[in-house]
Structures are given as C-alpha cells and as structure tokens.
Write a structure and sequence with these properties.
It is built from eleven helices and nine strands. By secondary structure, it is α/β, with parallel strands linked by helices. It has a nine-stranded mixed beta sheet with strand order 8-1-2-3-4-5-6-7-9. The radius of gyration is 17 Å and the shape is globular.
Length: about 280
C-alpha cells in the first residue's frame, strides 16, 4: 500500500505566498514520516500558480539523506518537464490529462489531443532520464461542464496511455463528486484489464466521506492513494470549501483498520500535523 502525501496540492490555491523556508521545513518533516512519495511542487507558469514559483528553491533546501520517500513534481508542458528533469532528486513527474475537454483547456491551455502529444513527449524524456511519469486522469469521475463522460471513456484514455508506455495512472476526482460505487466500478474494470499499470486514486472529498471512498478503492484493488494532512487543498472549480484533498490521517486510520501496516513513524506524523496550522494559517 502506497501513500502519496501532496503538500503541493494543499498549498497551491492559497493566495498568500508561503515563505520558501516554511515550505521546505514542512516537506522535510513529511519526509521523516515514511510516505512512499511526496508531491512537493510544480514547474508551471508562475502566472498560473504563483504559490509554486519557488519550487526549485524549495528543492535546494530539502534534506533527503535520511528518508526513503520519493519526490514528485507536477508539470503542465514539455518546458516544465525539461526544468524538472534537471534535478536528480526528483523521481516522478506528474502530468494532468483531463477526460474533460473544457477542464484540459482551463488547466493546461491545451486541447486533449494536444495534451496527449505532450504526454508522449514527456514520457520519452522521462525514459531517457530514468524518471517515471505519473499521468493523472483529472475529471476521471465526471465533470461539471456537460462534457462527455462514462466509464468506457475512462477505459479509452487508459488504453491510449498504455500505448504510450505509461506505467502509473492516477484516477482523479477533481471536484469531489465520486461515489464509492463509481470508485469501485472504475478500479474493478481498469486494474485487471491493465495488470502492468499501477493505478492510483487522487480523490477530493468531504471529511465524512473519506473512509468510504478509501474502502471502495481498496476493495477494487487500488493500492496507491493520494492525500494531504487535514484535507487541505482542493479544486477552485468545486466552489465548496469543504471539498479538499483526502485527509491523510483519516486514510491512515481506515487503512490500518483494514489491517494494512503502512510503516509510518507516528511520532513524526504528529509533528507534521502540528506544523500544518503554522503552514496553512496564512
């Protein structure tokens, strides 16, 4: 079972700039907890996401010597990928590919067809550099724009990504609309159909729904979950402040209740929880 902690997603929508040193201190603390991967920053336009304009500077302040946690950075185009690939410390690049044409244009200023070409180019560059590309299928559980959506459409996107050699695909519920039944349905279909692909769940949720969504994913065979401590973050499109990222501490409680040993340092986790109020109360 892999937990991916996402301070980048938690921070990116905060309007007041969080000091670079504070970001780095928080990520360093997270690195001591024992998460499989930390989604720590993004190499995107500072005009689009001002909060992430210091990702390279944050990286310079990270102390990664005593941690096995890997680092993931989000990119939105080939230029961002090239910037991220310069850093040996980064293990994964993440790219948001949307099933919704409207959201793809809003998120990366490109059509789905153009975005798929970008995925192919980034995948090729990652292979040369020995990195892995995580492709997020955003709006993977539906969209609010009236764009076409169905589980069959999700399968078509997965097949296209498989043809490009993508090995990690994270189904993303950008607006917190996924029901446990739909979560189970998607993973029960995709995981057996593409056993060579690692499927993850990047879900947004109200806190009271986190446990049911995690259980739905686990029952369908998902072993990779993204979250953020205290459920910070979320998509501005949701227009609901209560729909943030999946609260990591709740996911931990649920997964341990199901019998999983996550290998986390609980003392370091408590220290990270204490830091959240300082980091996010800006």
């Amino acid at each position: 079972m892999k937990l991916i902690e996402c301070p980048r997603d938690a921070m990116q929508g905060i309007p007041n700039f969080i000091d670079t040193a504070i970001k780095a201190a928080y990520i360093n603390q997270l690195a001591h907890v024992g998460f499989d991967t930390i989604d720590f920053g993004s190499f995107v336009s500072p005009k689009a996401i001002p909060q992430m304009r210091d990702t390279a500077e944050v990286l310079e302040l990270l102390d990664l010597h005593d941690t096995e946690s890997k680092l993931l950075a989000i990119v939105a185009n080939v230029r961002g990928a090239e910037d991220a690939l310069q850093f040996e410390e980064i293990d994964y690049l993440g790219f948001p590919l949307s099933i919704s044409e409207t959201f793809q244009k809003r998120n990366t200023n490109a059509s789905i067809t153009e975005a798929l070409k970008t995925v192919e180019e980034i995948q090729n560059r990652c292979e040369v550099k020995g990195k892995a590309l995580v492709t997020y299928l955003s709006m993977g559980f539906g969209n609010p724009y009236g764009d076409p959506y169905s589980p069959e459409l999700v399968a078509e996107f997965v097949e296209k990504l498989d043809e490009l050699g993508i090995k990690i695909i994270s189904l993303s519920d950008t607006i917190g609309s996924a029901s446990p039944a739909l979560i189970t349905e998607l993973f029960e279909v995709q995981i057996p159909s593409f056993p060579h692909i690692e499927f993850g769940a990047h879900l947004h949720s109200r806190k009271e729904d986190v446990s049911a969504k995690v259980k739905a994913g686990v029952e369908a065979g998902c072993t990779r979950f993204d979250g953020a401590l205290n459920g910070f973050g979320g998509c501005p499109m949701a227009k609901d402040d209560l729909v943030g990222n999946m609260a990591t501490e709740q996911m931990i409680e649920t997964l341990e209740g199901l019998g999983y040993d996550l290998g986390l340092n609980k003392a370091e986790l408590q220290e990270a929880m204490k830091l959240t109020s300082f980091v996010f109360d800006q």
